[in-house]
Write a structure and sequence with these properties.
Helices cover 39% and strands 16% of the residues. A six-stranded parallel beta sheet has the order 2-1-3-4-5-6. With 238 residues, the protein is an alpha/beta fold. Helix 4 packs across helix 5. The protein has one domain: Rossmann fold. It is globular, with a radius of gyration of 17 Å. The mean pLDDT is 95. It is built from nine helices and six strands.
Length: 238
């Protein structure tokens, strides 16, 4: 029986839309939505509930979900065969001191200020000039729509707190399964020093997708999906 692919959502919490990834449809899949907690350890019960009925599985996480997948892999759960982490981070991902202060100590805006202030601001931070050059062009308006549909203010601030507080560096050497670190060439959100420690995963390999930004799962699904399929075909057959 083939392992199940579990697609761990990004910061928005929205379940993955697998329509743009027909190359991955050869495996059974689960696409849950993501709850919101201010600490990674609080996701333990969620991972257990998602994986409890599976004998074998692969975690595929994007951005915030990539780091969550790596954290869970470091717990050495039974049945886990491999991890794909795209746009993830090992420590606080924010390179800007001002942005870190705003996320960690600034006001937790809600209501109109969140919907029409925080969400568009976050969408602009995520954007790259390459987002509109892929086979599925993605715009800032698309990101705004995604967050307004799926990310209420309390969830946004809880995940922001979790992202800023995380430190996976002591845990990464405990990941014993093959791991693909899928990286864009123009990530304007994740600081370089937040991703470098990921290479301390014993069986990690990195693939950089040319002319892509942090939102490459949305904007370049063909190249993104093919990279995942190559990796999974190799490690699962082996």
């Amino acid at each position: 029986m083939r392992p199940t692919l579990i697609f761990v959502p990004c910061f928005s919490g929205a379940p993955w839309d697998l329509t743009p990834f027909p190359m991955l449809h050869v495996w059974p899949a689960l696409t849950p939505s993501l709850p919101a907690f201010p600490r990674f350890a609080q996701y333990t019960d969620w991972f257990r509930s998602v994986t409890s009925s599976l004998s074998t599985y692969v975690l595929i996480g994007d951005s915030f979900g990539a780091s969550l997948a790596l954290w869970w892999a470091a717990q050495r759960p039974s049945g886990l065969l491999a991890v794909v982490a795209s746009g993830g981070f090992a420590v606080n991902p924010l390179g800007s001191t001002a942005l870190r202060w705003w996320i960690e100590k600034g006001p937790r805006l809600t209501g109109w200020a969140y919907t029409y202030g925080v969400v568009p601001f976050h969408a602009r931070i995520l954007a790259s000039p390459f987002d509109t050059t892929g086979d599925h062009p993605w715009t800032i308006a698309d990101t705004v729509r995604l967050f307004r549909d799926w990310t209420p203010a309390p969830a946004y601030w809880a995940r922001a707190e979790a992202a800023c507080a995380v430190d996976l560096r002591p845990d990464l050497p405990r990941i014993t399964v093959p791991t693909l670190i899928l990286t864009p060439t123009d990530d304007r959100l994740i600081a370089t020093d937040a991703t470098t420690p990921l290479m301390n995963i014993p069986q990690a390999r990195t693939e950089i997708l040319p002319r892509t930004g942090h939102l490459f799962r949305f904007s370049h699904p063909t190249a993104y999906g093919q990279a995942i399929k190559r990796f999974l075909t190799e490690v699962l057959e082996r």
